[in-house]
Known about the structure:
Blueprint: E1 2-6, E2 9-13, E3 38-42, E4 49-54, E5 57-62, H1 66-97, H2 101-104, E6 111-112, E7 127-132, H3 133-140, H4 144-147, E8 152-156, H5 170-174, E9 179-180, H6 189-197, E10 232-242, E11 256-263, E12 270-273, E13 285-294, E14 301-308, E15 319-326, E16 333-340, E17 346-360, E18 366-368, H7 371-375, E19 389-392, E20 395-398, E21 409-413, E22 427-428, H8 443-466
Parallel strand pairs: 6-7, 7-8, 8-9, 16-21
Antiparallel strand pairs: 1-2, 3-4, 4-5, 10-13, 10-17, 11-12, 11-14, 14-15, 16-17, 17-18, 18-22, 19-20
Region (Disordered): 384-450
GO molecular function: phosphatidylinositol-4,5-bisphosphate phospholipase C activity
EC number: 3.1.4.11
Amino acid sequence: MWRGIYENRCGLFPPEIVKEIGSNDKDGYVVIKLAYAAIQQIKLAKPHSIKISAPGRDWIIAADDENEAKKWFVELVKQTYSATIKEKNERKVQKILHINREISKLVIYCQVSHFFPNITTEAKFQEMYSMSESKHEKLIERGLAHYNTEHLSRVYPAGMRFDSSNFLPIPMWNTGCHMVALNYQTPDLPMRLNQGKFLANGGCGYILKPKYLMDPNFDIGKLENVVGNFPINLKIEIIAGRHLYRCDQSKGICSPLVKIEIHGLGKDNETARTISINANALNPLWQQTFEFKINFPEMALLRLHVEDGDYVGGKMGPFIGQAVFPVDCLRGGYRSMPLLNESSEPQELSALLVHIEIEALKHQNAKVLSPHRRLQAGRTVKDPRGIIERGRSGSNTSIQNVSQEYSYSTRLQSPTSAIPPSPRLSIQSDIGSVNSTSSNSNPEKNEMSLLKKNRKILSSFLKMSST
């Protein structure tokens, strides 16, 4: 579609009925460069004419009367004088600073600036301070986190990384740095964490920081004083897997094990691992549960790394598959987590069956049914309001009335699949059943129904792995 004018009305028109007006057309508009131009009034066949002698070409324009011609002439003289002065000044700056003006016009996003920790509002919005990874740690003590609440900053790899390796971007994100540059050609751990973190917000490459990182009083050395976080207790059960093979399948059947890692702010860095299932890569069964206390889930990442526990030597290594997810994007219940290769590309059929349960540490025995809504409150376009429900021996009392609520889904889904239409968050302490919140429910029946559902889910997952 083209934007054009028809009968003094502007609108969009199909290209087949649009005529592009060039500079030679009598109805077209032409841009005249007035710098170093000469303006003079002349007498031709048409009265009230003005000649503009611009570099490379002359232009003649005519007014309707003498008064209008005088106004045009005076205004053209003023504009020509200011354009000439501006052109001379730009050439002087270009000559002194050795700046190519044409190339500089292509840089339209950010302007390089120096780091001044005491600057608050004096700096311009387009200014950005760039630092190497080695300088980042030194600037933390000088107030880098406070600087990042008002201005942009970028961190890039050190020049000594001749092998294009990467640094861990977690410390830079924890201090509020806006852009962390990595070598995309190297598929190492930092690159996998980077790709996993930016799965949030639809994978658009832009994520809003939590509120406490925008607080001027935020001090990374005194995290106990942070206000606005939502501490959780993450329970993840590694149930089973399917098609867990190394790239070099000719080396025999592998014995897979799973490493669970938490990467985050402060003490939110933990690692656990399952046992190794001997000689079963088709459908190994673990059924092991791990718990992680996460104080800042808004900044934490969950990483699952599958490798061969019996691997010895060789070039390919014990790697089988991996997956990284933002903790604030996880959903509770039974989830089928697809595994990626070393370059974060999908692997055919490889997946883990896990069960995720999230509890709020500020509310004893309170289960978060929709953590995405609570952990991303204020950073999503949808309603971030949270609903808290408690249940004790058959009685439920709600803090806020809701018209609709939802709980865990038992379908096999992606751990970061789409959020249900109802933007509600529930926290409950009913341990007997995953789906039931009824005050008249029987705990024994609920437990039996839950076990039956678990068996159905596991059997369907293993059937998929054997086909």
